[in-house]
Task: structure prediction
Amino acid sequence: ARRVVVLISGNGSNLQALIDAQQHDQLGGEIVAVISNQPDAYGLKRARDAGIDAVALPHREYESRDAFDGALIKVIERHEPDLVVLAGFMRFLTPRFVQRFLGRMINIHPSLLPDYQGLQTHARALADGVSEHGCSVHFVTEELDGGPVALQAVVAVAENDTEATLKAKVQAREHLIMPIAVKWCLEGRLRFGPKGVTFDGTPLPPQGLR
Ligand code: GAR
Result:
């Protein structure tokens, strides 16, 4: 089976969506390890409950970003993944780390990239009065939240939406597109190479598949 390593920092609701998909034979592979830089992340419990190897790698115990990323590379490579999935992993990554897994690492971000890179995406979208918001799965490159988009889901912003309601709506879509993106990557349908992101060999537009 194809092998997936998932990196998290917190709740792990996207991880849960991947676990659920796997349990329904809809992931196209197996989550072989979950790694968190936050030792108390709830997602680690989700992994253990599903019988998945759960690893806490507290970044605070490393003296530099490079030392942490080096340790992270070692743990990941021990599990020989076909795909590395960042699911709410809230750490900047060094170029060395990104290069190591280039084309084999995806991230989920709570906005319609390239809009609202960084944090507080829902609050900023609301403040701007946008009518559409959403989430993106993208391949990870050295540019933070700037890698090419593979998949997006769009939600309509309602007049009475708050940060909390908008976040809930977007997260429901994250849980929908994350397992699909993983499956298509593992099947080799979704690729990131010299021609950019392709689906079944056809280059995708900047917003990816919607
Ligand atoms: C998700 O909403 C994800 O889009 C976001 O963190 C949340 C993690 O939730 N990621 C980022 O903001 C990345 N910059 P989860 O732990 O419940 O999956």
